[in-house]
Amino acid sequence: GNGGGGKRFRYSFNQGRSSKMVVKHVPSTSGQPQPPILDLDTLRERLFTGGGGASRGSLSRCARLYRDFVKRVLSTHDDPSSVTDEMTDEIEAAKQVLQRELRLHALEMRKLVLVAAAAEAELARYDAAQAQIESDTEACRKEIEELKVKLTHEKRVRRNREEYESLAKVANARPAKRRTAHKLDQVRREIGQVKAEEARSARELEVREKQFQLLMQSILDLKANLAEDLKRKELEKRMRSN
């Protein structure tokens, strides 16, 4: 009651158990953390304060509200006779605000836990994707190296084939060895015949040269004889005329 009823005021957080936050975790079938299920009062308060820019659920605000609540409760211990219904209502209201703020703080902490778990899961997925990318990159690099080796081998085979085909064309364009040897023997025989003919002609030429020289000598001798006969006849003629 109001006034100096002389009663000592005591308050405990155990009062009003129905107003405590009810949090239940739903088992996850996908391995991902699920958000907690909140009672309607906490959810309503969160919706009211979520977009307002107020820092509800912060640890500093909880500490300030707790100090205010403790200060109000301790003030009743100093002078219990001065406790009024209005003070009791204020303490009850401060308790409700503190409990609501603690529930919001617990919600924020659970949000941080969920965000951290989601970040860990995302990081694990990123690590798995990175490992898969590195594995695919290594496999691609090995495949490229194998293709390079295969391409080098195919280039060498192609070059050897082209060289073989070129040599085959040159070989096919030339006559066969047997036919070439036969023609070579024939040419050698013809060269032998030509050389023999040349030697025979040289011998005949030598004989003709000797015959020609003999003829010229004979002509010279004949001229000399004729000149001598002419001189002798001229001499005889002169002798007769004397």
Beta percentage is: under 5%
Helix content: over 70%
Give the overall average pLDDT: 77
Summarize the biggest pleated sheet. none
**What is the terminal-to-terminal distance?**
222 Å
Q: What structural class do helix, strand and pairing data support?
A: mainly alpha
Number of strands: 0
Whole-angstrom Rg: 69 Å
Order of helices and strands: HHHH
Spans of at least 5 consecutive residues with low confidence = 1-30, 50-54
Principal-axis shape: rod-shaped
Count of alpha/pi helices = 4
Q: What's the topology here?
A:
Elements: H1 40-50, H2 59-78, H3 85-173, H4 177-241
Helix pairs in contact: 2-3
Task: Describe what this molecule looks like in 3D.
This protein has a domain at 17-128. It contains four helices and no strands. It has helices at 40-50, 59-78, 85-173, 177-241. The termini are far apart. Pfam families: THOC7 (PF05615). Its main location: nucleus.
Give the gist of this structure.
This protein is mostly helical. Helix content is 76%, strand content 0%. It is found in: Nucleus.
Which key terms come to mind for this protein?
mainly alpha; rod-shaped; 0% strand; 242 residues; nucleus; disordered N terminus; 4 helices
